[in-house]
Amino acid sequence: QVQLVESGGGLVQPGGSLRLSCAAHGSIFSINDMGWYSQAPGNERELVASISSVGTTNYVDSVKGRFTISRDYAKNTVYLQMNSLRPGDTAVYYCNARIRSTRWAREFEYWGQGTQVTVSS
Q1: Burial (Cβ within 10 Å: 0-12, 13-18, ≥19) of residue 87
Q2: For the CA atoms of 8, 100, 68, 4, what is the dihedral angle to 10 degrees?
Q3: Rounded to whole angstroms, what are the CA distances from 49 to 1, 27, 70, 80, 114?
Q4: SS3 10
Q5: Phi-psi domain of 84 (left: phi exceeds 0; alpha: psi -120 through 50; beta: other)
Q6: Torsion region of 29: left, alpha or beta (phi above 0 gives left; psi -120 to 50 gives alpha)
Q7: Which residues contact 48 (CB under 8 A, 6 or more apart)?
Q8: Closest CA to 48 of 37, 62, 61
Q9: What does the DSSP assignment read for 52-115?
Q10: Proportion of the chain above pLDDT 70, given as a percent
């Protein structure tokens, strides 16, 4: 059984910063891509940033230069450093990871429980 546990959301003023964390727990042999998605009310969930097993990163254009995704491979944890936050960044942020539980198991996609980020003055 694998679980993704998120932390770090909250309320911040425009221009402020937040750091999201997501740790994978349970039976883990390997983790492929990890990423962060956002979902604002009435909108579909969309990719914000991702990082591969070898550290290759990808960002949606709206966060380039403001957000940084990183990974601690020893701790099975992914982070999202969010700077220069804007009201338009307000959403629930979900962690995502593609995990193999044993050498012979196929890869499954897992999601965190979501953490609310609100940018408002």
Answers
A1: exposed
A2: -10
A3: 25, 25, 10, 8, 15
A4: strand
A5: left
A6: alpha
A7: 35, 36, 37, 38, 59, 60, 63, 67, 80, 93
A8: 37
A9: -TT--EEE-GGGTTTEEEEEETTTTEEEEEE-S--GGG-EEEEEEEEEESSTTSPPEEEE---E
A10: 100
Given a contact cutoff of 8 angstroms between Cβ atoms, the answer to whether 59 and 49 are in contact is yes
Closest CA to 48 of 38, 40, 33, 39: 38
Rg (CA), the chain: 14
Provide the CA 105 distance to its chain's centre, in angstroms: 24
Cβ-Cβ contacts under 8 Å for 121 (sequence gap 6 or more): 13, 14
- pLDDT (tens digit, 9 = 90+) per residue, 60-94? 999 999 999 999 999 999 999 999 999 999 999 99
Say what the alpha-carbon torsion angle 30, 63, 95, 97 is, to the nearest 10 degrees. Answer: -20
